[in-house]
Design brief:
By secondary structure, this protein is of the alpha/beta class. It is 40% helix and 18% strand. It is globular, with a radius of gyration of 26 Å.
């Protein structure tokens, strides 16, 4: 079923052509709601039309105060000039940053400025005590902390006029401290309304270290260090564009491929690679259908490009009528990385258990036939010739909006992750591999085509795939727990009997989702077979794992556990934009009142909202979040939902 299809697709798809598209897209400084993003969108639209595709460019108004479902929008930003000079004692100047030469050396959405300012180094900047003994009012702050995390204190509370950021993310196994001394880490301002706008510049760690040395020497001599900053930028009520292409099918049902088009120059893997791959997949499928090498699909194939998150909210909120007939989607994010250079792994990210579906296992199956061909001393073999993995639900890209049960479009993600050069100016075309693009485009096109043409044969085949992969995952999970228990590890999480029952029930729901491909499909025989296998696996581990769980599980008080959250908006909720629109004193009061909410990580917070269907209590949601994420934090969960209610995003009663 897969090999013949992938052979046909592989002959038409071109990794080299896709890499050439990456080169073109990565030249634009694709900041959301900006002229250069708009240029990229118009070019993409024209390129699709020139390639014979049915394509549409849509424009959405954006300004402060507007919402796309529950997502706050923002003004359009444009910039003509931005530079930063260090004024030297001899009267000359040393240029530290220049927007024309390195666009990311100016923090996106920087406000206009023209003047001289004193420099102050702040260690951290996220806590009040970091400013003890420092006067930053009217000055520029140098910090290694992400700008939005220090904005409230440095800019709004203590009156600094701007920031210089010289931090760099580190991942010990991949990019340890000092690994990228001359790259610049992506750092951006975001303004949703009500904040004090500021300007900011970003330096490489090496340039930042030199500026810090000069600062220390100047203070030792009783001098100050002064800078000259000039930014010519503007904000206005503007527009955000999305581009879509369509390969018509025989029915009104659809399958959706999406890849975000935004991100700063010179970012190539993130996400010029995803946008370019989606272009090449759309072209190839359209060509194969037009030439009769593939039949007209049963379901329409739609491909969508827009700014990450924002574009998906805008597009879905305008086209809500398409949501019920969209069977599934796939998100392409960072799909071009050269694994040898970037250290990346090909990851298939599954959907949340709150929206169980066949799609994650289909994505894995489409990938499993592309391991490559190798030869051992005993002859031909088929080991994976690249690094690959599968992961549970995660947020951070467009798939998590689609896969929110309030939207209900199951959408896995294909991504090369982690990436040594992620969100730095070192994410250049040289880090993008035509072979990686070719492989991931073939996987994506296979996935799309099977969903677009899925019927009884595909549903029956996928039921077998789902069952076999479910049994393997459960066996590995139980054996890993047995190993930990025998090794004396401390138990954590829900009792294993509950975990197994949860996974069996969710797997049954995933099997039932195959009715989207074949309305006559009967999941029951497959569910019974999987349940029998799960019972056998659990029987082998029950004696050891049955009693192996924490003696006590923290819980909500009965009156708190009985509360039922009801969502006011479709789609996930971004908490920070809603907080930042409040006056500073009110924002700080809310943060202090709901401080425990910060202990809930973002994935667990999103999963908790996904399980809130308007009937489940907080007590039930607490248990489900633990079963899905292993996180059980009743106080933080309660504080999080109360904060959402205070912000008017949900009802809680």
């Amino acid at each position: 079923m897969l090999r013949e299809l992938q052979s046909t697709l592989g002959r038409e798809l071109s990794g080299e052509a896709a890499r050439a598209l990456v080169a073109r897209i990565s030249q634009w400084h694709r900041i959301q709601a900006s002229p250069m993003y708009r240029e990229a969108a118009h070019w993409l639209h024209t390129t699709l039309l020139d390639g014979g595709l049915e394509a549409e460019l849509e424009s959405f108004p954006t300004r402060e105060g507007l919402l796309a479902w529950g997502e706050p929008l923002f003004q359009e930003w444009s910039c003509a000039e931005g530079w930063l000079d260090l004024l030297l004692p001899n009267g000359s100047a040393l240029r530290l940053a220049d927007y024309r030469a390195v666009p990311l050396s100016l923090m996106p959405r920087s406000a206009s400025v023209d003047g001289e300012f004193e420099l102050v180094v702040v260690h951290g900047g996220e806590r009040p005590e970091d400013y003890a003994g420092l006067d930053v009012r009217g000055k520029i702050v140098l910090t290694r902390s992400m700008p939005m995390s220090v904005h409230r204190l440095a800019i709004e509370r203590h009156g600094a006029v701007g920031l210089i950021f010289d931090g760099m993310r580190t991942v010990p196994e991949l990019c340890p401290p000092g690994d990228l001394p001359d790259a610049i880490q992506y750092a951006s301002w975001w303004w949703w309304g009500g904040e004090t706008r500021a300007f900011g510049f970003a330096l490489s760690p090496r340039a930042g270290a030199e500026l810090r040395r000069r600062y220390e020497r100047a203070h030792a001599d009783g001098r100050t260090l002064r800078l000259r900053a000039r930014v010519r930028s503007s904000f206005r009520d503007g527009a955000i564009e999305t581009v879509s292409a369509r390969i018509p099918g025989e029915s009104a049902e659809e399958v959706l491929l999406l890849a975000h088009l935004c991100h700063p120059a010179p970012f190539a893997n993130d996400n010029a690679s995803g946008a370019a791959a989606a272009m090449e997949v759309a072209r190839a499928l359209s060509c194969l259908v037009a030439e009769g090498r593939l039949p007209r699909p049963r379901r329409t194939i739609r491909v969508l490009w827009g700014p990450e998150m924002t574009g998906t909210y805008l597009y879905l909120s305008r086209h809500e009528q398409r949501i019920p007939r969209t069977v599934a989607a796939l998100n392409l994010d960072m799909v071009g990385a050269d694994q040898a250079r970037t250290g990346s792994v090909n990851v298939a990210v599954h959907t949340t258990h709150a929206l169980p579906s066949f799609v994650g296992d289909l994505l894995e199956a489409a990938r499993d036939t592309l391991h490559g061909e190798a030869y051992s001393f005993r002859g031909r073999s088929e080991p994976p010739l690249y690094r690959l993995a599968s992961g549970p639900f995660s947020n951070g890209s467009d798939h998590y909006i689609l896969g929110d049960p309030s939207v209900g479009i199951p959408a896995p993600m294909l991504i090369e992750w982690p990436d040594r050069f992620y969100h730095t100016t070192a994410d250049t075309l040289e880090m993008v591999s035509p072979a990686t693009l070719q492989r991931n485009m073939t996987i994506a096109a296979t996935y799309l085509w099977i969903v677009a043409n899925g019927g009884p044969r595909e549903a029956a085949w996928l039921a077998g795939e789902l069952n076999s992969r479910f049994v393997v995952r459960l066996a590995r999970e139980l054996q890993s727990a047995v190993t930990d228990a025998l090794g004396g590890a401390r138990p954590h999480g829900a009792p294993w009997e509950e975990r197994v029952a949860f996974r069996v029930e969710r797997h049954g729901a995933a099997l039932a989702s195959l009715r989207r491909l074949d309305p006559e499909f009967d999941p029951e025989p497959h569910r019974r077979a999987a349940t029998t296998q799960a019972e056998l696996l659990w029987a082998q581990a029950r004696d050891l794992l049955g009693p192996w769980h924490p003696a006590e599980r923290p819980a909500l008080a009965p009156e708190e556990a009985a509360l039922v959250p009801r969502r006011r908006y479709r789609g996930p909720l971004s908490l920070q934009p809603h907080l930042n629109r409040l006056p500073l004193d009110e924002r700080e009061a809310l943060l202090a009142a709901f401080a425990p909410a910060r202990e809930l990580d973002t994935i667990s917070a999103d999963v908790a909202l996904f399980w809130a269907d308007g009937t489940r209590t907080l007590g039930a949601i607490l248990d489900l979040v633990e079963l899905e994420t292993d996180v059980r934090a009743p106080e933080a969960l309660l504080a999080h939902f109360r904060l959402l209610a205070r912000l008017g995003l949900i009802d809680l009663a």
